[in-house]
Amino acid sequence: MGRPVKAETIVLWLCVALVAIAGLAPIAAIAVESFWQNGHFSLTYYRELISAARFWPLLANSIRLALATTAVCGLIGVPAGILFAKSDLPLRSGFMWLLTVPFVLPPYFVALGWAHVVARIGTIASDWLFRFGGCVLVLSSVFLPITMLLTFASILNVDRRLEEAARLASGWPGVLRRVTLPLSAPGIVFSLVLVFLLAMGELSVPSFLRYPTLPVLSFTQFAASYNFGAATAAAVPLAFIAFFGIFVESAFLRDRDYAFRSTGQTLFISLRHWKTPLATLMAALCFALVILPLSALFADAFSPAAMHEAMQRAGVSVVRSVMYSAVAATILMALGFLLGHFMRGGRQRVLSALTLALFAIPGTVLSIGLVRLWNTPCTWFIYATPALLILGYTAQYCAVTTRLSLAGLMLIPTSLDEAGRLSGAMWARRLFRISIPLSTRTLLCA
Fold first, then answer.
1. Half-sphere exposure of 63 (CA within 13 A, CB side)
2. In whole angstroms, what is the distance from residue 286 CA to residue 26 CA?
3. C-beta separation of 203 from 363 below 8 A
4. pLDDT band at residue 121, thresholds of 50, 70 and 90?
5. Closest Cα to residue 205, out of 301, 292, 132, 145?
6. Is the dihedral of CA 379, 385, 386, 389 positive or negative?
7. Beta bridge mates, 269
8. CA gyration radius, the chain
9. Distance CA 269, CA 56 (A)
10. Angle between helices 214-223 and 228-252 (to 10 degrees)
11. Between residues 180 and 132, which one has the greater pLDDT?
C-alpha cells in the first residue's frame, strides 16, 4: 500500500488547480480557437492578421509604448526607491504614499484627470495628450510605483553588514554601485519586466487617448466586429509576449534570491545640504503626476450635479462593484495565503511564473478567453452569473496576494511550525493557530 495523501497536499494542489482553471484554461481556449475554423485546423486567422496592413504598425506602437513607459519608470522609479530606502529625505513616507495613489486607481481615471487638465490649457496641450506622449505620461504615472516600491523593498533586503564592510573602503556612491544595486538587481529587473508587460497589454488608456495598439485591435474585433477568430488571433501574440517576458525574468533570476526578509536596521545616507533641493524635486513630482490630474478630476466629479447624476445612473452598479470586489478579495486572500504556504515549501519556480504570467497577461486576452471557455449551454450557470467576473479577478490578481503572503510567511520562523508538528498538531491546526495569527497584517494588506 502507498502512503496516504496528506490533507495539506490535497488542499494546496486544489488551489493550484483553481488557478489553472481560472487562468490557464481560458488562455488555452483562445489558443485553440485561433487555430480552428469551420470545424478543422486552419491558419487563416493568422494569415489574415499578419497580412493586414495595420497589424505590424499596431504591434510596433504597442512595443514602442511599453518601452517608453518602462524607460520613464526606470529613470524615475529606481532613483526614487533608492532615495526613499537609503536616505534621510524629509517627508519620504508622505511622498511614497502620494506617488502610489495612481497605481490603486484604474488607469482610465488618471487619463480622464489629465484630459480635464489639458481642457483648461488649450488645443495645443490637448493635441499632445491624445497621442503617444499622453499615453506615456499616464502609464508612467500609473506604473511608476511598481519600480519605486520594488526597488525600495529590494534595497531594504540588502544585508547591512555588507554595506558596512564596503563603507570601510569606499564612499556611498561606490557602495551603491558595487554592493547595494547589484544585490538589488533581481527586484529592479523584475519591476521593469512587469512594467513593460503591463504597459504592453494596457487597453483603457490607449483607447481613451486614441492611440492605436494591438490590445485595442483585439478588443475591437471582439466587442465591435464580433469576429471571435480574429480577436483570438490578435490576442495570442499578447499572451505569448507575457509568457515570454516572465520566462526571461525567471531565467535571469534563476540563481538569485529575492525573497524579502528582515535584515535589521538600514544604513541611511545623510543628504546634508541636498535635503531641501531633493525634497522640493519630489514635491514637484508628486504635484505633477498625482495632485494635478486627480484634483482636476475630483473638482468636476464632486460637484452636486455630477454626484446626483452619477448616483442616478450608476448607483446600483457601484453597489455591485463593491460587493463583487469584496467577494473576490476574500477568495484571493485565502487562495493567495495557501499558495504562498505552498511556495514556501520550496515549490516556487513554476507556480511563481504561472501567477506572474496571469497577472501580466492583458485583461482583454483573459476576458476573451473566459467568454470563449464558459459561453456554452453546459456552463451557463457560470457565464451568466458574477462567478465569471470573480474567476477573472482570481486569475488576474492571484500573483499579488500570493507574493504578499509569501513575503509575510518568510518572516515567520520555521521552528514554530516544526514545534507544532512535534507536539502532534495537524496541518490545519498549525495553520489556524500559528501561520494565520502571525500573518494577520499581511492578509489584510493582501
1. 9
2. 39
3. yes
4. confident
5. 132
6. positive
7. 87
8. 24
9. 48
10. 150
11. 132
DSSP-assigned beta bridge partners for residue 315:
none
Cell (9 digits) for 402: 500570493
Q: What is the pLDDT of residue 262?
A: 47
Domain range list for the chain: 1-42+337-446, 52-302
Whether pLDDT at 260 is above 50? no
Q: Report the percentage of the chain scoring pLDDT > 70.
A: 87
Amino acid at 384: A
**H/E segment holding residue 271:** none
DSSP 275-297: HHHHHHHHHHHHIIIIIHHHHHH
pLDDT at 86: 85
CATH of domain 52-302: 1.10.3720.10
Contact 446, 337 (CB under 8 A): yes
> Phi, psi (5° rounding) for residue 358?
-65, -35
| Closest C-alpha among 197, 194, 208, 73 to residue 135 | 208
Is 90 exceeded by the pLDDT of residue 418? no
**347 pLDDT tier (thresholds 50, 70, 90):** low
Element (H, E) at 138: helix 132-156
The CA distance from 32 to 262, in Å, is 46
The answer to whether the predicted template modeling score (pTM) of the entire model surpasses 0.85 is no
Contact 438, 412 (CB under 8 A): yes
